[in-house]
Amino acid sequence: MHTRIITIDGPAGAGKTTVSKLLSQKLGCIYVDTGALYRGVAFEILQQKINWEDDHVLEEFLKTLDLNFIMEASGLVLMSSGRDISDYIRTPEISMLASSSSAKPQVRSALFEIQRNIARTKDAVFEGRDMGTVVFPDATHKFFLYADLAIRAKRRCDEMPEETKDLFRVQKDMETRDNNDSKRKSAPLKPAEDAVEIDSTFLTIEEVVEKMLGYIEKAGQASQSC
Protein backbone atom coordinates (compact mmCIF):
# COMPACT_ATOMS: atom_id res chain seq x y z
CA MET A 1 0.00 0.00 0.00
CA HIS A 2 1.46 3.35 -1.03
CA THR A 3 0.80 6.11 1.50
CA ARG A 4 1.26 9.86 1.27
CA ILE A 5 3.72 11.10 3.88
CA ILE A 6 4.27 14.80 4.59
CA THR A 7 7.05 15.88 6.96
CA ILE A 8 7.26 19.19 8.79
CA ASP A 9 10.54 19.78 10.60
CA GLY A 10 11.85 22.82 12.43
CA PRO A 11 12.78 24.28 15.82
CA ALA A 12 10.45 24.65 18.82
CA GLY A 13 7.97 27.50 18.65
CA ALA A 14 7.94 27.82 14.87
CA GLY A 15 4.31 26.72 14.79
CA LYS A 16 4.85 23.11 13.64
CA THR A 17 2.19 21.55 15.85
CA THR A 18 -0.67 23.91 14.97
CA VAL A 19 0.31 23.96 11.30
CA SER A 20 0.61 20.16 11.15
CA LYS A 21 -2.79 19.63 12.76
CA LEU A 22 -4.53 22.07 10.42
CA LEU A 23 -2.73 20.74 7.35
CA SER A 24 -3.68 17.16 8.21
CA GLN A 25 -7.32 18.21 8.57
CA LYS A 26 -7.26 19.96 5.18
CA LEU A 27 -5.73 16.89 3.53
CA GLY A 28 -7.88 14.35 5.37
CA CYS A 29 -4.98 12.41 6.89
CA ILE A 30 -3.72 11.80 10.42
CA TYR A 31 -1.31 14.03 12.36
CA VAL A 32 1.64 12.49 14.21
CA ASP A 33 3.58 14.51 16.81
CA THR A 34 6.86 12.59 16.84
CA GLY A 35 8.28 14.93 19.47
CA ALA A 36 5.73 13.41 21.85
CA LEU A 37 7.53 10.07 21.53
CA TYR A 38 10.83 11.60 22.64
CA ARG A 39 9.05 13.41 25.44
CA GLY A 40 7.55 10.07 26.40
CA VAL A 41 11.02 8.58 26.69
CA ALA A 42 12.13 11.55 28.80
CA PHE A 43 9.03 11.18 31.00
CA GLU A 44 9.81 7.53 31.71
CA ILE A 45 13.50 8.32 32.31
CA LEU A 46 12.45 10.75 35.05
CA GLN A 47 9.76 8.45 36.44
CA GLN A 48 12.12 5.49 36.65
CA LYS A 49 15.19 7.58 37.59
CA ILE A 50 17.23 6.12 34.72
CA ASN A 51 20.90 7.05 34.27
CA TRP A 52 20.37 7.53 30.53
CA GLU A 53 23.95 8.72 29.91
CA ASP A 54 25.15 5.19 30.67
CA ASP A 55 24.73 3.40 27.32
CA HIS A 56 24.20 -0.04 28.85
CA VAL A 57 21.59 1.22 31.31
CA LEU A 58 19.85 3.15 28.52
CA GLU A 59 19.74 0.12 26.22
CA GLU A 60 18.22 -2.09 28.95
CA PHE A 61 15.65 0.63 29.74
CA LEU A 62 14.65 0.97 26.07
CA LYS A 63 14.02 -2.79 25.84
CA THR A 64 11.29 -2.43 28.48
CA LEU A 65 9.75 0.71 27.00
CA ASP A 66 6.19 0.32 25.74
CA LEU A 67 5.29 3.56 23.96
CA ASN A 68 2.60 3.75 21.32
CA PHE A 69 -0.08 5.95 19.85
CA ILE A 70 -3.75 5.01 19.90
CA MET A 71 -6.45 6.72 17.88
CA GLU A 72 -9.20 8.47 19.83
CA ALA A 73 -11.87 10.94 18.75
CA SER A 74 -9.50 13.82 19.56
CA GLY A 75 -6.68 12.26 17.52
CA LEU A 76 -3.60 10.21 18.39
CA VAL A 77 -2.96 9.79 22.12
CA LEU A 78 0.45 8.77 23.53
CA MET A 79 0.36 5.70 25.74
CA SER A 80 3.12 4.29 27.94
CA SER A 81 2.53 0.75 29.18
CA GLY A 82 -1.19 1.25 28.65
CA ARG A 83 -1.33 4.63 30.44
CA ASP A 84 -2.21 7.90 28.72
CA ILE A 85 0.72 10.24 29.47
CA SER A 86 -0.22 13.01 27.03
CA ASP A 87 -0.93 15.53 29.80
CA TYR A 88 2.41 14.98 31.57
CA ILE A 89 5.00 15.50 28.84
CA ARG A 90 4.91 19.26 28.17
CA THR A 91 6.93 20.62 31.09
CA PRO A 92 10.18 22.60 30.51
CA GLU A 93 12.11 19.90 32.39
CA ILE A 94 10.88 17.17 30.05
CA SER A 95 11.46 19.38 27.00
CA MET A 96 15.14 19.83 27.86
CA LEU A 97 15.64 16.16 28.77
CA ALA A 98 13.93 15.09 25.54
CA SER A 99 16.32 17.28 23.56
CA SER A 100 19.38 15.81 25.33
CA SER A 101 18.34 12.16 25.38
CA SER A 102 17.12 12.21 21.76
CA ALA A 103 20.72 12.77 20.69
CA LYS A 104 21.40 9.17 21.70
CA PRO A 105 21.31 6.90 18.60
CA GLN A 106 19.76 4.11 20.70
CA VAL A 107 16.76 6.31 21.53
CA ARG A 108 16.19 7.33 17.92
CA SER A 109 16.54 3.75 16.70
CA ALA A 110 14.03 2.50 19.26
CA LEU A 111 11.41 5.00 18.10
CA PHE A 112 11.93 4.74 14.33
CA GLU A 113 9.87 1.57 14.01
CA ILE A 114 6.84 3.09 15.77
CA GLN A 115 6.86 6.00 13.34
CA ARG A 116 7.41 3.86 10.27
CA ASN A 117 4.66 1.42 11.24
CA ILE A 118 2.16 4.29 11.22
CA ALA A 119 3.42 5.45 7.81
CA ARG A 120 3.01 2.00 6.27
CA THR A 121 -0.76 2.01 6.63
CA LYS A 122 -1.93 5.63 6.85
CA ASP A 123 -1.53 8.92 4.99
CA ALA A 124 0.03 11.17 7.60
CA VAL A 125 1.61 14.51 8.46
CA PHE A 126 4.67 13.86 10.63
CA GLU A 127 5.98 16.72 12.75
CA GLY A 128 9.48 16.62 14.22
CA ARG A 129 13.10 17.57 13.79
CA ASP A 130 14.53 14.91 11.50
CA MET A 131 11.46 13.53 9.78
CA GLY A 132 12.51 14.63 6.28
CA THR A 133 16.22 14.02 6.72
CA VAL A 134 16.40 10.68 8.55
CA VAL A 135 13.08 8.98 9.30
CA PHE A 136 11.31 9.55 5.98
CA PRO A 137 13.93 10.58 3.40
CA ASP A 138 11.51 9.51 0.64
CA ALA A 139 8.51 11.45 2.00
CA THR A 140 6.03 12.71 -0.59
CA HIS A 141 6.41 16.32 0.57
CA LYS A 142 8.89 17.90 2.97
CA PHE A 143 8.72 21.25 4.76
CA PHE A 144 11.06 23.03 7.18
CA LEU A 145 9.33 25.66 9.31
CA TYR A 146 11.33 28.30 11.17
CA ALA A 147 10.91 31.73 12.77
CA ASP A 148 12.83 34.39 14.66
CA LEU A 149 13.93 33.18 18.13
CA ALA A 150 12.28 36.06 20.03
CA ILE A 151 8.98 35.45 18.23
CA ARG A 152 9.17 31.72 18.91
CA ALA A 153 9.86 32.30 22.61
CA LYS A 154 6.91 34.70 22.92
CA ARG A 155 4.60 32.20 21.21
CA ARG A 156 5.67 29.43 23.58
CA CYS A 157 5.38 31.72 26.61
CA ASP A 158 1.85 32.75 25.59
CA GLU A 159 0.82 29.09 25.72
CA MET A 160 1.98 28.68 29.32
CA PRO A 161 -0.13 29.17 32.48
CA GLU A 162 0.16 32.70 33.87
CA GLU A 163 2.01 31.59 37.01
CA THR A 164 4.75 29.86 35.03
CA LYS A 165 5.37 32.53 32.37
CA ASP A 166 9.03 33.55 32.21
CA LEU A 167 9.94 34.89 28.77
CA PHE A 168 13.65 35.22 29.54
CA ARG A 169 13.91 31.60 30.71
CA VAL A 170 11.81 30.31 27.81
CA GLN A 171 13.99 32.11 25.25
CA LYS A 172 17.20 30.96 26.95
CA ASP A 173 16.02 27.34 27.09
CA MET A 174 14.90 27.52 23.46
CA GLU A 175 18.26 28.92 22.36
CA THR A 176 20.08 26.14 24.24
CA ARG A 177 17.82 23.52 22.71
CA ASP A 178 18.29 24.94 19.20
CA ASN A 179 22.04 24.77 19.69
CA ASN A 180 21.94 21.22 21.06
CA ASP A 181 19.62 19.96 18.34
CA SER A 182 21.51 21.53 15.43
CA LYS A 183 24.98 20.46 16.60
CA ARG A 184 24.33 16.90 17.70
CA LYS A 185 26.06 14.18 15.67
CA SER A 186 23.01 11.95 15.38
CA ALA A 187 20.22 13.38 13.19
CA PRO A 188 20.91 17.10 13.69
CA LEU A 189 18.17 19.67 13.21
CA LYS A 190 18.49 20.92 9.64
CA PRO A 191 16.35 21.18 6.50
CA ALA A 192 16.36 18.25 4.11
CA GLU A 193 18.01 19.19 0.81
CA ASP A 194 14.68 18.87 -0.97
CA ALA A 195 12.55 20.49 1.75
CA VAL A 196 10.54 23.66 1.17
CA GLU A 197 11.67 26.19 3.80
CA ILE A 198 9.04 28.55 5.21
CA ASP A 199 9.70 31.49 7.55
CA SER A 200 6.64 31.81 9.81
CA THR A 201 7.85 34.91 11.70
CA PHE A 202 5.29 37.23 10.12
CA LEU A 203 2.76 34.67 8.87
CA THR A 204 -0.44 33.44 10.48
CA ILE A 205 -1.03 29.71 10.85
CA GLU A 206 -3.58 29.85 8.03
CA GLU A 207 -1.09 31.61 5.73
CA VAL A 208 1.57 28.96 6.40
CA VAL A 209 -0.89 26.15 5.69
CA GLU A 210 -2.06 27.84 2.47
CA LYS A 211 1.56 28.09 1.33
CA MET A 212 2.06 24.38 2.02
CA LEU A 213 -1.15 23.43 0.24
CA GLY A 214 -0.01 25.51 -2.73
CA TYR A 215 3.29 23.63 -2.95
CA ILE A 216 1.54 20.27 -2.56
CA GLU A 217 -0.99 21.09 -5.28
CA LYS A 218 1.73 22.37 -7.61
CA ALA A 219 3.81 19.23 -7.07
CA GLY A 220 0.76 17.08 -7.80
CA GLN A 221 0.10 18.90 -11.06
CA ALA A 222 3.75 18.53 -12.05
CA SER A 223 3.72 14.77 -11.40
CA GLN A 224 0.52 14.33 -13.42
CA SER A 225 2.05 16.11 -16.41
CA CYS A 226 5.14 13.91 -16.45
Strand tally: 8
Can you summarize the main beta sheet?
5 strands, parallel
Radius of gyration: 17 Å
How is the CATH topology named?
Answer: Rossmann fold
SSE ordering: EHEHHEEEHHEHEHHEH
Query: Which ranges are low-confidence, i.e. pLDDT below 50, for 5 or more consecutive residues?
Result: none
Q: Please identify the top-level CATH class.
A: Alpha Beta
Specify the CATH homologous superfamily. P-loop containing nucleotide triphosphate hydrolases
CATH-scheme architecture:
3-Layer(aba) Sandwich
Short description:
By secondary structure, this protein is α/β, with parallel strands linked by helices.
Q: Which characteristics define this entry?
A:
5-stranded parallel beta sheet, single chain, 226 residues, alpha/beta, Rossmann fold
